[in-house]
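P.,

For your records, the input lines for the assembly:
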Amino acid sequence: MARPREFDEVRAVDAAMRAFWTAGYEGTSTQDLCEVTGLGRSSIYNTFKSKRDLFGRALARYMEVKNAGLSELMESGLPVRQKIRTQFQRVIDEEFERGPEGGGCLVVHTAVEVAARDREVAGDLARDYQVRLAVIRTAIEAGQRDGDIARDKDSAALAHFVIATIAGLRISARVTPQRSVLESVADAAVSAL
Amino acid sequence: MARPREFDEVRAVDAAMRAFWTAGYEGTSTQDLCEVTGLGRSSIYNTFKSKRDLFGRALARYMEVKNAGLSELMESGLPVRQKIRTQFQRVIDEEFERGPEGGGCLVVHTAVEVAARDREVAGDLARDYQVRLAVIRTAIEAGQRDGDIARDKDSAALAHFVIATIAGLRISARVTPQRSVLESVADAAVSAL
DNA sequence: CGAATTTTGAACCACACAGTCCAAAATGAA
DNA sequence: TTCATTTTGGACTGTGTGGTTCAAAATTCG
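Structure tokens returned:
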């Protein structure tokens, strides 16, 4: 055998994820990646093929973590409307966690910055969208069976609407940093279910 | 006097606007700007202080044009719900005009790419948001007087909701390029008014 | 220990970037 | 025609980028 790694690959991806999260793909230099991971360039390029490759791993991890949280909520015992309102609230809280520099969503950032020029990333985003759609749609259909949501409504359309609202909240938060405004938007959206 | 300009400053800003529109601030190089405007570097740096300055001009022009269209629609004689549904439709159509590479919105792109690091731009976006808010809110209040929208609803909250929905449509369009999906989202949103 | 193997850090590379400079061309006024 | 003034194109600069190379250090196994 030979010399073992001095670092944990998962932790490195995690650190890279946070960097891309706050600065986007282009906004994060390889130097930045070295600093946040604490690794040297060689270690990074030995472990990951390229910046692009590391970004892919970081994006996948981001989606994994976020969707785990979403699924956990959507499969909870709460009434549907409350599930969805809670998800909206999580988004709002996350956007305001740190200052206007902080928040943001890697998926949204990637959708506007990278997706148009990179088919593979676009495919990843599309697949991730479908995952979120299915999870939310299932919860909505359960709600329809419970009588919380009208049965004649199209569950898929409502799920798309919920996803679009989340994105809308995130963009609005970048421009209008007032919690109360976003909460009123969330309330209005829930009333459309 | 001396040699006159060979180009029209407004046309140059317009060309720059289109470039930033499709590629964003960082994604548009000064070389790109030379090509789309047809000007040399000297002419650009003589007329505008910097890339950043030209971007500011381009962004302002974008807002001006877009808000003119919005105002015209909101001040038309249509019923409110139809005004808003039409605006949603315009956004959807615009996003699908060219391929997934094409569409996009300079304001959204700017909000996620540069607003977090540039206070002045963030201020411009915030001001623009207020303009759109006022225009939409006024239309909603007119609708309330006409009895098209319940009078006990908060017109400002609904206007914020409309703006967030537009942003949500735009982000969704980047990821899920199916017109029918976005149109169902638009319908769902209108039903919340 | 010593050989095989891997990681690591630092120097290095070519390139693209935003921005500057300057001489030549173009123009209008005198 | 000449002079003052401005525009224009192209060469240039310094910096930061993503990525490569390579020798030295570190480790495990025989």
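Two observations worth noting. The mean pLDDT of chain B is 94. The radius of gyration of chain B is 19 Å.

Regards
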